[in-house]
Amino acid sequence: MKIPQSVRALIESGTPAHLVTLNRDGSPQMTVVWIGLDGDEIITGHLMANQKVKNIRRDGRVAISMQSPEKNAMGLTQYVVLHGDAHIVEGGAPELLQKLAWIYIAQGVKFPTMENPPAGFVTHIQVKRITGVGSWTD
Amino acid sequence: MKIPQSVRALIESGTPAHLVTLNRDGSPQMTVVWIGLDGDEIITGHLMANQKVKNIRRDGRVAISMQSPEKNAMGLTQYVVLHGDAHIVEGGAPELLQKLAWIYIAQGVKFPTMENPPAGFVTHIQVKRITGVGSWTD
Question: Is residue B123 situated within a structural domain?
Fold first, then answer.
């Protein structure tokens, strides 16, 4: 589905993304990651074939939540949850992480810090459903 | 397991908790909730038998992630993930939510705002494993 402008703005402001994947036994696996946009797909990079990558290759069902810096009239933290289907593409991780590091850490930083990082993996997520607290619409 | 003092402090500072439960089809369900401590169990309240409550009654496997306000030396957001087993206890939600509202919204606020709220449900989570980025130890 199309990602609303309000959600695109939250992503592009460098908001930490809480990503859930599913372990082999069906239990949830959570990490906080950097995300970016590739059209209407959400993308995130991994230098290694970590647990997230293994999990998504087995079962592409994922969810991502992000806190908004704004609170609603009642004082509750606003947040958005993106439910989607993910797939892994080989390569491209250092380039994506370098781009995201300027948003999530600071402009001008070198990331990954190592020389000759591995090509790694990029996860692409197609968003199927959006929930949360807030007005996550165009 | 025993919850380290560093994690207890993060919880008690009123940090939004990203909670994952499992839907009937095994897909992840995420919301952001208020949490508190009851000894070494994590507790959260629900006025209604919402999707979280239904999911936990079917499958108690949950995970919670919280961002720390601190960043590590590299500039990465620190966070903790608590993996655990949850069960639902009937009643007690308004009292718990009232207590947490003073931490998560502001001292002195009335919450729930309605008169005569339903007794609701309290989720108790036993923590089995702690991961994340940061020093989540005593």
Answer: yes
Give tens-digit pLDDT for B1-60: 999 999 999 999 999 999 999 999 999 999 999 999 999 999 999 999 999 999 999 999
Q: Are A40 and A127 in contact (CB under 8 A)?
A: yes
What ranges in A13-104 are assigned the alpha helix state H? 51-58, 93-104
* Rg, Å, chain B Cα set: 15
Domain that residue A87 falls in: 5-133
Within a domain: A138: no
Q: Is residue A63 part of a domain?
A: yes
**In total, how many domains does chain A have?**
1
B20 and A26: CB-CB below 8 Å? Answer: no
For A36, B43, B131, the CA distances from B59, given in Å and listed in that order, are 32, 17, 21
CB contacts under 8 A, B 17-76 vs A, are 18, 20, 22, 26-32, 59, 61-65, 67, 74-76
Beta carbons of B118 and B48 less than 8 angstroms apart: yes
- What pLDDT, in 10s, does the model give residues B51-84? 999 999 999 999 999 999 888 877 788 999 999 9
Which of A15, A22, A25, A27 to substitute to test the interface with B, most B CBs within 10 Å?
A: A27
Domain of B87, CATH number, reads: 2.30.110.10
Contact residues on chain A for B132, CB-CB shorter than 8 A: 32
What's the gap in Å between the CA of B38 and the closest CA on chain A? 23
